[in-house]
């Protein structure tokens, strides 16, 4: 049974989507930072893709040097505040904390990080040194974590930076994709506002770079171009019934949810197809939106799910039911979704095989396809000489993030095929260094 | 950015953070690593006739889950030959000409003092620190604190050193004495250029209650050691204040004792220190802690508008006075923020059993927020100190600030109590419960 009532107001929405990592208060931050051991060659730092000096920033919180703490964080990661909330810390820094070796609760690094940076953002602290203008210009396509991180770093090196963003808000999937109980729109956007004010790059919103001509113009006007376009829409399932009403793509639905909150229509009985983190998020979100039943249906076994275990636990905690070893054959309905026809599967000699005659129909009034985001292959093919790897990810030099077209650099989901905000932030920043080396 | 460079009696360093003479300054390797990490100066592990140390040298004091709030050691001065140390001093100075390298020294005879001072100066030391502080082992041989406790002897030895020294001489004092300003004045009279304090405090940190030996245990026996670390800071701060305020001490001071972060350092400087030295915190966490010290100090100075360390030095000294000059009319009363209170009732029991029965509990079932009984509250601060919630109990000023009367003035005006049952006693009229009421109470 649904544990959440359908939210009918912003307030009820906030209640159902309560932050799982709320901002710490001063006492919490003090106690938690006191626990940190200040490990040498700290494993938490090694586990962070942006290599934040975690023991140092926690010590700075503990000594009352919050500005210094924020400085330490931002020196490594321009999405320091957002990452504190959205990073899968269980498998990154916190998962590596030495306390876990003793079965003691690891330090809440994410929340401490969020705490330290929040004050800098609220007080508009000036933490960054920008080099004087070097006369060179860089265009950035996409205001997601990769693009914005690249922009900030380039500004510290003296470049004039212009960002072109198709949508009307910055931060990419941080505001359009991540589950609302991880970060609020306001939090994501406040950090963006702070960064833009501190670094002074320009952003043109609602400006999709769409054609060969658009790209040509960028090439003419800028010394280098950074591609931070992320991924595309949810991939098609290639099965009958996909275009029925109430059969939706997960990322598209989540974007609507992030923008319109309680006003989004949600089915009563929802089936989510997929076994990745996005599927967990979607199922959990459906439950929190008041769906009486939210079912996660995955082709393979529970153990084979791509999602992190804690994400599945989170979904279960929200009342989501799991159905495993069921493969969808067809989405049924008359104009509108009425059910999904599945066939049961099993592993035979290391291969997933359907069990003949095991077909069944699970009724529902909504289907969410969480079967991965497509790659922007067609769009990328407009760039001359830009090579993709076998997985349709942009091929880059792993040090410089330069693509096979020397004037283009790329990082983030478009380059790694879809990881986390923190990876995009790390690589976007390093790509700026690559651009700098290329242009100097 | 504020300027955090420091100058102690002519010894310059890029920042006020020095390593104290101790194991972290045992070798050129460690000091180079420290400078590379950001430390501004280092006082070399005390040089002299090399010693033989025991194995099992330290004992730690843990408080609940906090490790090493105090550290005790029975180590002596360097156990490495002088020539090796001299060679390394030279090498460090070659790589780090702008950092302060101070040679800490401890020898016996005048000839030895003369010789070793010349040796370390030739090696390139920027200054000399005389270790008159070591309170264990070395003092049994008439050195260290045995000198620091005898102002006349101390003065004589400082004089010997000054006969040959061309670099500034810092005299390191022992806290194992009732009035630290006496050796401090002797240091001045002997011609010393600066003093540093404190060295370690004589201590036994605990006893192995199964085997009946104090720690650290050396083959079934122990000896008293020297105590340092966060626990000694309050003692050191008071000694610092005493020296900084004393008209005849009049020497720049290098502050030492329990410094672990920028805030500790700021407190030392506000009480008159020109720079600070650190030992235990580095032995616990390594050289990396200096990064928080530097960034925290800079941030603090920026916030307060101090451009240099000189701007802030001694700022708190003017506000430390004798008890008799404090305003007896100043009146604070505890105030509990009911919103913040978590109902632990530690304030209640602290006041009830340990102070003035000025906190009451609610009669209502399940209501755990205590209340202050204003007429009983003497404003001692105890409840606000034990309350585990930040800013939950605050001390609110009740007098209007218009009246100032000190003990000294009352004494002079003849309004101070003078006899055992004097009606002018401060506690007269202050309600206390009847003794037998105690028997009805739950403990
Ligand atoms: C449902 C979902 C949940 C997620 N949850 C988490 C999470 O909890 N924690 C986490 O760390 N990560 C999470 N991620 C992953 C994370 O959001 C991404 O890895 C990260 O946002 C990638 O950053 P990016 O800058 O590469 O791309 P994006 O964030 O996708 O940003 C790309 C930007 O480029 C713009 N753009 C695209 N094409 C053009 C164009 N032609 N012209 C101009 N602009 C263009 C887009 O509008 C967008 O703003 C989640 C992802 C999804 C889909
Ligand atoms: C193990 C150990 C060895 C020490 N050796 C010396 C020494 O050789 N010479 C000296 O002047 N002080 C010595 N000290 C004292 C320190 O320099 C310092 O004065 C004292 O530890 C207080 O500072 P702290 O609280 O930061 O540790 C030693 C301290 C320790 C813990
Ligand atoms: S591993 Fe844990 S205890 Fe060690 S520094 Fe990192 S957060 Fe602190
Ligand atoms: S700290 Fe180093 S020298 Fe000391 S006992 Fe441990 S291993 Fe041995
Ligand atoms: S000590 Fe503080 S938190 Fe505890 S009962 Fe008293 S006021 Fe409340």
Question: Any overview of this molecule?
Answer:
The complex is a heterodimer of chains A (440) and B (443). Chain A is an alpha/beta fold and 440 residues long. Helix content of chain A is 38%, strand content 16%. Chain A folds into three domains: 21-122, Fumarate Reductase Iron-sulfur Protein, Chain B, domain 2 (Orthogonal Bundle), CATH 1.10.1060.10; 137-232 and 375-439, FAD/NAD(P)-binding domain; 247-369, FAD/NAD(P)-binding domain. In chain A, the strands form three sheets. In chain A, strands 3-2-1-4-14 form a five-stranded parallel beta sheet, with helices on both faces. In chain A, strands 5-13-6-7-8 form a five-stranded parallel beta sheet. In chain A, strands 9, 10, 11 and 12 form a four-stranded antiparallel beta sheet that branches. In chain A, a hairpin with a 1-residue loop joins strand 9 (326-334) and strand 10 (336-348). The N and C termini of chain A lie far apart (62 Å). Chain B has 443 residues and is α/β, with parallel strands linked by helices. Chain B has helices at 28-37, 82-95, 110-123, 145-148, 151-164, 181-189, 233-245, 262-270, 280-285, 290-304, 309-312, 346-354, 382-386, 407-413, and strands at residues 6-8, 11-13, 17-19, 41-47, 58-63, 66-73, 100-105, 127-131, 169-172, 194-197, 201-203, 207-208, 213-214, 225-228, 253-256, 275-278, 332-336, 359-360, 371-372, 393-397. Chain B has an eight-stranded parallel barrel, surrounded by eight helices. Chain B has a four-stranded antiparallel beta sheet with strand order 5-6-14-11, with no helix packed on it. The mean pLDDT of chain B is 96. Chain A binds chain B through residues 26-27, 30, 34-35, 38, 40, 55-56, 59-60, 62-65, 67-68, 71-72, and chain B through 65-66, 261-263, 285-286, 288-289, 291-292, 295-296, 299-300, 389-390. Bound molecules: flavin-adenine dinucleotide (FAD), flavin mononucleotide (FMN) and iron/sulfur cluster (SF4) (3 copies).
């Amino acid at each position: 049974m649904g544990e959440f009532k359908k939210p009918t107001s912003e307030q009820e929405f906030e209640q159902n989507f309560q932050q799982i990592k709320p901002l710490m208060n001063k006492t919490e931050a003090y106690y938690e930072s006191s626990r940190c051991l200040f490990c040498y060659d700290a494993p938490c730092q090694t586990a962070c893709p942006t290599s934040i000096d975690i023991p140092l920033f926690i010590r700075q919180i503990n000594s009352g040097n919050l500005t210094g703490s924020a400085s330490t964080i931002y020196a490594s990661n321009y999405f320091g505040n957002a990452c504190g909330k959205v990073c899968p810390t269980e498998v990154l820094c916190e998962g590596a904390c030495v306390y876990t070796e003793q079965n003691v609760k690891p330090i809440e690094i994410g929340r401490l990080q969020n705490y330290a940076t929040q004050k800098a953002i609220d007080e508009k602290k000036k933490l960054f040194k920008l080099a004087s203008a070097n006369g060179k210009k860089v265009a950035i396509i996409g205001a997601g974590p990769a693009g914005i991180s690249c922009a900030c770093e380039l500004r510290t090196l003296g470049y004039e930076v212009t960002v072109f963003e198709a949508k009307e808000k910055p931060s990419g999937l941080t505001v359009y994709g991540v589950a609302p109980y991880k970060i609020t729109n306001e939090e994501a956007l406040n950090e963006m506002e702070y960064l833009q004010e501190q670094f002074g790059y320009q952003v043109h919103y609602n400006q999709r770079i769409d054609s060969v001509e658009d790209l040509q113009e960028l090439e003419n006007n800028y010394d280098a171009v950074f591609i931070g376009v992320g991924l595309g829409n949810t991939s098609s399932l290639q099965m009958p019934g996909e275009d029925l009403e109430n059969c939706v793509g997960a990322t598209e639905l989540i974007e609507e949810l992030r923008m319109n909150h309680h006003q989004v229509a949600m089915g009563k009985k929802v089936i989510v197809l997929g076994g990745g983190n996005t599927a967990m998020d979607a199922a959990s979100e459906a439950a929190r939106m008041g769906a009486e039943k939210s079912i996660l249906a995955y082709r393979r076994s529970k153990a084979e799910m791509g999602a992190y275990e804690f994400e599945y636990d989170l979904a279960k905690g929200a009342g989501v039911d799991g159905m495993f070893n069921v493969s969808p054959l067809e989405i049924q309905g008359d104009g509108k979704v009425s059910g999904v026809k599945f066939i049961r599967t099993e592993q035979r000699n290391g291969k997933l095989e359907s069990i003949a005659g095991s077909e069944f129909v699970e009724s529902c009034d909504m289907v969410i396809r969480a079967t991965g985001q497509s790659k922007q292959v067609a769009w990328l093919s407009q760039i001359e000489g830009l090579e993709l790897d076998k997985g349709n990810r942009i091929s880059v030099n792993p040090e410089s993030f330069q693509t096979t077209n020397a004037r283009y650099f790329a990082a983030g989901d478009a380059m790694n095929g879809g990881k986390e905000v923190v990876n995009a932030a790390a690589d976007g920043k390093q790509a700026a260094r690559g651009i700098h080396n290329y242009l100097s | 950015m504020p300027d955090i460079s420091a100058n102690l009696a002519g010894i310059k360093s890029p920042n006020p953070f020095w390593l104290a003479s101790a194991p972290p300054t045992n070798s050129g390797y460690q000091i180079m690593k420290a400078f590379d990490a950001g430390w501004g100066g280092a006082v070399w592990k005390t040089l002299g006739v090399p010693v033989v140390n025991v194995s099992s040298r330290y004992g730690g004091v843990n408080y609940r889950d906090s490790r090493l709030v105090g550290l005790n050691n029975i180590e002596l001065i360097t156990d490495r030959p002088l020539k090796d140390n001299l060679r390394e001093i030279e090498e460090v100075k070659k790589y780090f000409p702008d950092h302060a390298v101070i040679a800490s020294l401890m020898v016996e005879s005048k000839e030895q003092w003369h010789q070793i001072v010349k040796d370390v100066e030739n090696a390139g030391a920027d200054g000399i620190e005389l270790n008159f502080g070591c309170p264990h082992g070395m003092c049994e041989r008439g050195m260290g604190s045995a000198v620091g406790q005898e102002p006349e002897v101390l003065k004589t030895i400082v004089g010997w050193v000054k006969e040959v020294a061309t670099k500034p001489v810092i005299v390191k004092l022992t806290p194992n004495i009732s009035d630290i300003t006496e050796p401090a004045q002797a240091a001045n009279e002997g011609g010393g250029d600066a003093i540093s304090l404190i060295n370690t405090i004589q201590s036994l940190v605990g006893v192995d209650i199964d085997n009946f030996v104090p720690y650290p245990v050396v083959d079934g026996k122990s000896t008293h050691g020297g105590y340092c670390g966060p626990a000694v800071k309050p003692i050191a701060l008071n000694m610092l204040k005493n020296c900084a305020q004393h008209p005849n001490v009049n020497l720049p001071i290098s502050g030492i004792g329990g410094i672990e972060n920028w805030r500790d350092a700021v407190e030392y400087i506000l009480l008159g220190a020109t720079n600070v030295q650190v030992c235990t915190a580095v032995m616990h966490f390594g050289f990396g802690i200096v990064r928080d010290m530097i960034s925290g100090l800079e941030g603090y100075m920026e916030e307060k508008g101090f451009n240099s360390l000189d701007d802030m030095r001694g700022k708190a000294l003017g506000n430390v006075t004798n008890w008799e000059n404090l305003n007896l009319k100043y009146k604070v009363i505890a105030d509990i923020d009911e919103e913040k209170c978590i109902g632990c009732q530690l304030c209640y029991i602290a006041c009830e059993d340990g102070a003035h029965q000025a906190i009451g509990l609610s009669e209502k079932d399940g209501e755990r927020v205590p209340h202050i009984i204003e007429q009983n509250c003497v404003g001692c601060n105890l409840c606000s100190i034990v309350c585990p919630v930040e800013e939950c109990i605050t001390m609110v000023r009740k007098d209007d600030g218009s009246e100032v009367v000190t003990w000294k003035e009352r004494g002079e005006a003849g309004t101070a109590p003078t006899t055992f049952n004097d009606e002018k006693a401060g506690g007269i009229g202050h309600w206390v419960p009847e003794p037998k009421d105690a028997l009805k109470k739950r403990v």
